From TrEMBL:
The keyword DNA-binding does not apply. The lineage of its organism: Bacteria, Pseudomonadati, Myxococcota, Myxococcia, Myxococcales. One of its GO terms (biological process) is carbohydrate transport. GO terms for cellular component: ATP-binding cassette (ABC) transporter complex, substrate-binding subunit-containing. Keywords: ATP-binding, Nucleotide-binding, Transport. GO terms for molecular function: ABC-type transporter activity; ATP binding; ATP hydrolysis activity. It comes from Anaeromyxobacter dehalogenans (strain ATCC BAA-258 / DSM 21875 / 2CP-1). This is ABC transporter related. Residues 4-234 form the ABC transporter domain. The keyword Transferase does not apply. It comes from the Bacteria. The chain holds residues 1 to 238 of 360 of the full protein.
Amino acid sequence: MAGVVLRDLAKRFGETRVIEGLDLEIHDGEFMVLVGPSGCGKSTALRMIAGLEEVSGGEILIGGRVVNDVPPKDRDIAMVFQSYALYPHMTVRENLEFGLRIRKTPQAEVDRLVTEAAQVLGIDALLHRKPKELSGGQRQRVALGRAIVRKPSVFLFDEPLSNLDAKLRVQMRAEIKKLQARLGVTTIYVTHDQIEAMTMGNRIAVLNAGKLQQVGAPLELYERPANLFVAAFIGSPP
Ligand code: ADP
Ligand code: MG
């Protein structure tokens, strides 16, 4: 396992400063929520941690190692996006196996890891099905399965539930929390939804216009907001 440290992290697209001076420490095994309004830089921050976006300034450390120049596949990270595209022509089993195969994992190990992930997520009975034969919730579980099957040290979630209906969203929040607690994997969970942040985060980092506003436990942010933005953002759900 490994914690994640952001040191004075910055991102510019041309003249536009999207992230500035971001300092944040996510402890080993912690569930950290990164919350902020649309366009504030959440996805950009996650993509830099995943190595999908170059860093303009500062450092990213995973497990104490600076990874700025480490390619995505060597960062021991799994990312789940909001459009959890499963490969439609592959079965659930093949979807789960894909990430292992491209890493040339031996077959016996592939079988073991897929069985384990499927059991954890309760999708053992679905392994032979194609994505179109699954419900929304089952698809979401397969998407999570693809993330956990390799046993990464860090999970990055980018608004993974925003395409689900309200009931399923509430259910999946609980499932993701349970899964993370069970696996103990360091997790950064991005959302623009204050309620989701308040119910899921052990700690919450509030971002606005590319700048960190406050980091703290839900109650701390609610009772002692550091500034007007945090007070308004956390205090007034949509
Ligand atoms: P969030 O995920 O919080 O909604 P993003 O990280 O997607 O925000 O975007 C933050 C800002 O960076 C937005 O203003 C967006 O338009 C801008 N941005 C994101 N990606 C690019 C890019 N590749 N080129 C230029 N601007 C970008
Ligand atoms: Mg985003």
